[in-house]
């Protein structure tokens, strides 16, 4: 059999993914092949005639099968871009989402307006570390961060990401439940907690279901972690300190109400790029 070249194998894969209703057939086919061949995606096009070795074809077939069976591309290639930075991911951590960039940007904007040269931030349920690491890397102030997660394996990934992106000296990593490992006050508490109502987990897209349920399941109404964090945070925010959350669809008002009940002030809700109310922030003083 003649050897398949890059163009031919991509075309075949796109057809195959289309048959199995993979949402972005060409993108996924290209990202997986570019990763396998260790080239930028754009270079696939320049090298359309390059033949693939039998080993490359075999490995690619395995990846394609896993993708068809629902494994997210980010887990197959082991990384995901977020805020223009590359984060290592595996199935121990939630894959960073584009809408979470909005949470990070809201914090960066806020920090910009502060007079202090140093800001201390705690990230509750850090996962891959995408939020706190991007802030540490991109803020124009010195950010000292505390990344907390109950999962030891996700903290290991977060730590590796911090090292790769050269911010490890700004960050501390603590294993534990929500704010329990904190032993000092901070200027900002940020969290993208699990917020999917338990009853909706089974109906999620197949690939989302391959992500850790520990990072998705927010209890019966999806708000369990907001309640706990909002309660605990009052003891750990500096005067005028900021609490800031990502929320799921139609949760913004509920979270704002929880904040009001606990006497937080200056509550603001911000929309994401798709016009969904996605970020809730408030002060405690
Ligand atoms: N944004 C994720 C999703 O909708 C959920 C993440 C979370 O629960 N914090 O798939």
Automatic annotation (TrEMBL):
Reactions accelerated catalytically: L-glutaminyl-[peptide chain release factor] + S-adenosyl-L-methionine = N(5)-methyl-L-glutaminyl-[peptide chain release factor] + S-adenosyl-L-homocysteine + H(+)
EC code: 2.1.1.297
Segments forming domain Release factor glutamine methyltransferase N-terminal: 8-78
Keyword Methyltransferase: yes
Record domain Methyltransferase small: where: 117-196
Coiled-coil spans in chain: 148-177
Keyword annotations: Coiled coil, Methyltransferase, S-adenosyl-L-methionine, Transferase
GO molecular function: nucleic acid binding; peptide chain release factor N(5)-glutamine methyltransferase activity
Top enzyme class: transferase
Binding-site residues for S-adenosyl-L-methionine, renumbered to this chain: 125-129, 149, 192
Positions of substrate binding: 192-195
Keyword Methyltransferase: yes
Pfam families referenced in this protein's UniProt entry, alphabetically: MTS (PF05175), PrmC_N (PF17827)
CDD domains: AdoMet_MTases
GO biological process: methylation
PANTHER family the record matches: HEMK METHYLTRANSFERASE (PTHR18895), MTRF1L RELEASE FACTOR GLUTAMINE METHYLTRANSFERASE (PTHR18895:SF74)
Function: Methylates the class 1 translation termination release factors RF1/PrfA and RF2/PrfB on the glutamine residue of the universally conserved GGQ motif.
Entry's family note: Belongs to the protein N5-glutamine methyltransferase family. PrmC subfamily.
Name of the protein in question: Release factor glutamine methyltransferase
Organism: Halanaerobacter jeridensis
């Amino acid at each position: 059999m003649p050897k398949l070249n890059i163009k031919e194998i991509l075309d075949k894969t796109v057809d195959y993914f289309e048959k199995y209703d993979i949402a972005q057939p060409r993108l996924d086919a290209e990202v997986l092949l570019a990763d396998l061949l260790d080239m930028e995606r754009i270079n696939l096009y320049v090298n359309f005639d390059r033949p693939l070795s039998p080993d490359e074809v075999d490995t690619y077939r395995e990846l394609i099968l896993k993708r068809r069976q629902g494994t997210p591309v980010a887990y197959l290639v082991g990384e995901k871009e977020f805020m223009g930075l590359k984060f290592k991911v595996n199935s121990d951590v939630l894959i960073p989402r584009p809408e979470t960039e909005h949470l990070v940007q809201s914090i960066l904007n806020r920090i910009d307006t502060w007079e202090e040269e140093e800001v201390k931030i705690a990230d509750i349920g850090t996962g891959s570390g995408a939020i706190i690491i991007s802030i540490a890397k991109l803020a124009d102030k010195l950010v000292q961060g505390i990344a907390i997660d109950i999962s030891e394996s996700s903290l290991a990934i977060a730590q590796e990401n911090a090292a790769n992106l050269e911010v490890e000296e700004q960050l501390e990593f603590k294993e534990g439940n929500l704010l329990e490992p904190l032993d000092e006050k901070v200027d900002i508490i940020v969290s993208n907690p699990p917020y999917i109502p338990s009853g909706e987990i089974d109906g999620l897209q197949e690939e989302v279901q391959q992500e850790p349920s520990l990072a998705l399941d927010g209890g019966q109404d999806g708000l369990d972690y907001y309640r706990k964090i909002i309660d605990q945070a009052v003891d750990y925010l500096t005067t005028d300190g900021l609490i800031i959350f990502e929320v799921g669809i139609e949760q913004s008002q509920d979270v704002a109400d929880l904040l009001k009940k606990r006497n937080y002030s200056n509550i603001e809700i911000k929309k994401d790029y798709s016009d969904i109310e996605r970020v809730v922030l408030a002060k405690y003083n």
